[in-house]
Design brief:
alpha/beta; Rossmann fold; 6-stranded mixed sheet; 4-stranded antiparallel sheet; 9 helices; 10 strands
């Protein structure tokens, strides 16, 4: 994936400011940054969900905006705040998405069964998605992103609301996908997760890339958490604030 000079402004706020990013094929790439850094806006432009004011986004040589059909055929997307056709069952939803993605009908049932099993949703395959928990919804969204066997997965906060057991299952799926030649770009606020899972990463703040490279290079001998805090200019607040929370006795 190649992003060059991406810009997006909402009113007077520049959400993404001439952002450049290169993701090498066959790696797990983490995109990290504070709230409001422009991560979701960047991923939305990279996948064709949001048109940039300027700049280009390309997937394996296909421009997302001038050759959208070719580019999007290569991408599986799990957006932030995923919205699904939740009056379908999980299995029906996978069939619907598979047909939209032109998966051969004979493959949809077998792929759906494998995905439901891998994500721990087999027993809920005939349950309406509207009845799923937040974590289950996230998992069926990931299954939808995978069913057409894309070359690139773009995942916005894929582990949010997911329990530890399911989270480990998702990690296993993503590692296997990368070993098979796929590329994953994921955003996360959890530095420990990115540090343990990703090969490369970029730190974004105020719509710009502050640093990008291998996890080891970005850490620069520190923990990723500390390096991130240093890069974004975090300063711990003093202990004198919120004094009204410090009293041990109840108010009368």
């Amino acid at each position: 994936m190649s992003l060059q000079g991406l810009c997006k402004t909402f009113g007077t706020k520049r959400a993404v400011d001439h952002l450049d990013l290169q993701v090498r094929p066959g790696c797990m790439f983490g995109l990290v940054g504070p709230n409001g850094a422009g991560k979701t806006t960047t991923l939305s432009m990279a996948t064709g969900l949001l048109r940039p004011d300027a700049g280009t986004a390309a997937v394996l040589g296909h421009d997302v905006w001038t050759d959208p059909a070719a580019a999007k055929a290569l991408i599986g997307v799990l957006p932030d705040g995923v919205r699904l056709f939740d009056r379908l069952s999980g299995r029906e939803l996978l069939r619907y998405v598979g047909l939209l993605r032109r998966v051969p009908p004979g493959d949809i049932a077998s792929r759906s069964a494998e995905l439901l099993e891998a994500l721990g949703l087999t027993e809920d395959g005939n349950t309406l998605v509207v009845e799923y928990s937040a974590g289950m919804t996230k998992k069926i969204g990931l299954a939808c992103a995978l069913i057409h066997a894309p070359r690139l997965l773009i995942l916005d906060e894929p582990f949010e609301a997911v329990d530890p057991v399911s989270g480990e299952g998702i990690r296993s799926i993503l590692r296997s996908y990368v070993r098979g030649g796929g590329t994953v770009v994921l955003s996360s606020h959890v530095m420990e997760l990115v540090e343990s899972l990703c090969d490369d990463l970029a730190v974004v703040a105020q719509g710009r890339v502050l640093v990008s490279g291998t996890v080891e290079a970005v850490r620069a001998g520190s923990t990723l958490q500390q390096r991130f805090l240093d890069l974004v200019g975090f300063t711990a607040a003093g202990g004198e604030g919120l004094a009204w929370l410090h009293s041990s006795s109840p108010s009368s």
